Amino acid sequence: MEETTFVAQLLKCKSMHEALLMALVGDPHAAEDLYQQAAMVMTRKRAELPEDVPFAAWSRSVIVNVVRDYRKMMARRRVRVLEDSALEQVARAFERLDDDYLTERRDALRECLNQLQDEHRAILWQRYDERLSFDELARRHDRSSGALETLLYRLRKVLADCIDRRLRQTEASA
Amino acid sequence: MSASDDLDLLLLRRLDGTQDARAAEELDARLAADPEAARRLCLLAVDQAELLHALQVGAIGSRVLGRRAGQAATVQSDHPRRRFWSRRGLGVAVGAAAALVIAAGAWLLFGSTNPALESGQLLADGQPSSAPREEQRLEAVGGPAVLRLGDGSRVELAEESVARLKAPTEGLRQLVALEEGEGRFKVTHGGGQFRVETPAGRITVLGTEFTVRVPKKRKGATVLDTDAQAFSVLVQTGRVQLEHEGRAILLTAGQSFTTGSGVQLAQQDPLKRSAGLAAAPSPAREERPAKPETLEVTGILRAAMGEGPGAVPEFITITTADATVYKLEVNAAATALAKDFDGQEVTVSGTLRAVDGIDWFTINEAAGAGEERHTGGPDTPQGTEGKDDRLKRRPLAKPGEMDKKPRPKLERKPAGKDPVE
What we know:
Structural class of chain B: alpha+beta
Distance between the termini of chain B: 50 Å
Radius of gyration of chain B: 23 Å
Shape of chain B: globular
Oligomer: heterodimer
Strand content of chain A: under 5%
Shape of chain A: globular
Number of strands of chain B: 20
């Protein structure tokens, strides 16, 4: 694949790659490291990409292989990563996601995020951007660690439900 | 709570890395057997990836701060915005940003689509201005100046740096020409691309934080002078596409690109080498600090080894828990480390040298100078004892342990005062 096209495709698919990695490894730190690793592999192997194979599918297979290698490495340390059958299932589920649907979902997420209170957005920011642990969050918000953990997942669930609701409304009105 | 609510919570915990081993095992079995559960995991993962991007958007970020017009506006150290202004990762732009104070009145302008000065002093075509217009020659005077652009992105111009805001074309939403000096850009996500043009190349981004430096013009210099064709780019977060001499180069967080005499890369890195540019060591620069900073750095080591027996690493990085990426100078100590501990968490001690806006970390090689130690103990993998006494190695956190055992943040402390001792 021509270099400029490759870079453009890599950028276009970055969010999807990050999401796939998060789903597969269940560890945001590891997902970030593995993304860099996968991008390097893709860069190195881009010449091997057959013309008739879509970049998205090829890049997903690269990522799945990188995760398999990671799993082997972690197995030696007795750290569990997604079993192969589950890994296959999740990778297949990603393949079936529709681009248009995902675009609508992203739009819905932004709208739902804007409906949250400032403090709640701050908690999401601190958890996912600043990478604070629940203990650190608890100190910052003068609450217990358990309360912050419960609140965070409640916020995520509220967001997810809000997104689903909006998408259903869009679908119904279409 | 319904079964689907329960599943969502399990999946969210998995994505957050806070699931215990038993729950992870049960969820794996369910994911393998239930395509709907797998699909739901995918959707929530997409939401999480998007959430990270959305939270980084300036407009949302500002609301996260709880800042509204008329509120006090001094940047506090314990503030989410700190990540933008003081998380340099690498580079020299940090010092100025750490002391940044945003003028209260600037926030009154927030939400406007016109560019506005948020802090510092700016000359527009030689006249003081807080509302610069397109095509004006903008120069930061008396210190760094922070501008909020029409799309909500921000640029911090270092003192005496010169830039122009240009009318966007070709589907761009923002176009800034950095003529000389240094600009640090925090770009919001949104429709269209954000572009920075320099005399030697241009940088196109989607949403990120990066620093561009263009050398100051010498008196009598022409555009054909080598220095006038030089610039460097350092990406703090996100990614940028850089175009230089007809080539497109992808830079991601922690990576940098520097031109000098001809084309040079600031480090040997597979992503950048793939662009087909000749790699060369970074040349000596005038900006080396007289006394390098000594640091202890804990993070995940990544190395790309060359091929064949006796191969040396082509590049080595250490990524800390706060996502700062340290590029290691490839010396004997770093090579030994790369061969044995690729992909593992290590703690090393050494010095940091800022070279043209890029920090190079050099591991202390001298025997006895080492603050690095091998911790030993029950968590230490077998067979590593005595391999490298300068190394302190820790196992990676297991999924589910993220909060029970938080990864250490970057610790900056004087050598020889390690509290572990």
